[in-house]
């Protein structure tokens, strides 16, 4: 079987210019799986309010983390592509949900490198299922596959939040940081609006409705982002033998005024020093590559908030990025 591999991530603006950031935010936020309103409502909100105000601020934030090679998210995804390519014979390409390269560009690259391609394995760079991350990436890749009339089969790796090799890898990436003195380890996940959790509940009656919903078995968990984040966190506590009370989880990056999953990371940074948590470790398992949300929102802004509120040390644990065990885990996924 002639196969190819695509690592699919979210994407970044082409540069830190306000013009490029505006274009990127317009594409991102006009996605109906991200801002789930009627087309007209979304157009008015995104083009009229969010993007004009957010683009200059986001451009500044991107400028603070940008490297000579470009956006960290893209650079790190390319480094992962190169590291995986060293381990497998099949051509490996990257694709982004927003911006470049698109899935179509990735399919065409794979076809150039492997004429007669029969199967493409798409690995979403998201361990957890959310309508606004995993689902939109996969649906976009499927749509471009169909529209392009490609004859190769498209195989998609399911969310791996509970997959033992992924969990082992995440634990291994955290373990060295536990050797230093710390009061608490915070697992901070990208947030989503609560409404998205209700929308994804295939039972219509479980998520955020049943007491302790994420702990009570339900078919809804297959698409419940909160359940999957809680599961990953609890497994880390178990694998790393974290003492009770020394770990917790929260949700970051809220946009707008609607209720999002709680507790909010930014609020916890303010509260924790007052609870006696002075030495903090933070890890962001919703991201497999470091990006704006980890490097700027957490490692820059979050650190400042925590220290300003009375914290003493703040240590950011990097994402899996090009961890050799992560590369090995990916080899396992593409080899089935
Ligand atoms: C990890 C999965 C992600 C989910 C779920 C997610 C939901 C989500 N995001 C926004 C709005 C923004 N997110 C932004 C950046 C961003 N988001 C993710 C991942 C998830 N988002 C990543 C990896 C990044 C970083 C991209 C990079 O280039 O480094 C941004 C852009 C930056 C900014 O202006 O803050 C926005 C906007 C919403 C509304 C949402 C769920 C509804
Ligand atoms: Fe996001
Ligand atoms: Fe739940």
From TrEMBL:
<dbReference type="InterPro" id="IPR033659">
    <property type="entry name" value="Ferrochelatase_N"/>
</dbReference>
<keyword id="KW-0456">Lyase</keyword>
<feature type="binding site">
    <location>
        <position position="190"/>
    </location>
    <ligand>
        <name>Fe(2+)</name>
    </ligand>
</feature>
<comment type="pathway">
    <text>Porphyrin-containing compound metabolism; protoheme biosynthesis; protoheme from protoporphyrin-IX: step 1/1.</text>
</comment>
<keyword id="KW-0479">Metal-binding</keyword>
<comment type="function">
    <text>Catalyzes the ferrous insertion into protoporphyrin IX.</text>
</comment>
<dbReference type="InterPro" id="IPR033644">
    <property type="entry name" value="Ferrochelatase_C"/>
</dbReference>
<protein>
    <recommendedName>
        <fullName>Ferrochelatase</fullName>
        <ecNumber>4.98.1.1</ecNumber>
    </recommendedName>
</protein>
<keyword id="KW-0350">Heme biosynthesis</keyword>
<dbReference type="InterPro" id="IPR001015">
    <property type="entry name" value="Ferrochelatase"/>
</dbReference>
<keyword id="KW-0963">Cytoplasm</keyword>
<feature type="binding site">
    <location>
        <position position="293"/>
    </location>
    <ligand>
        <name>Fe(2+)</name>
    </ligand>
</feature>
<comment type="similarity">
    <text>Belongs to the ferrochelatase family.</text>
</comment>
<dbReference type="Pfam" id="PF00762">
    <property type="entry name" value="Ferrochelatase"/>
</dbReference>
<keyword id="KW-0408">Iron</keyword>
<keyword id="KW-0627">Porphyrin biosynthesis</keyword>
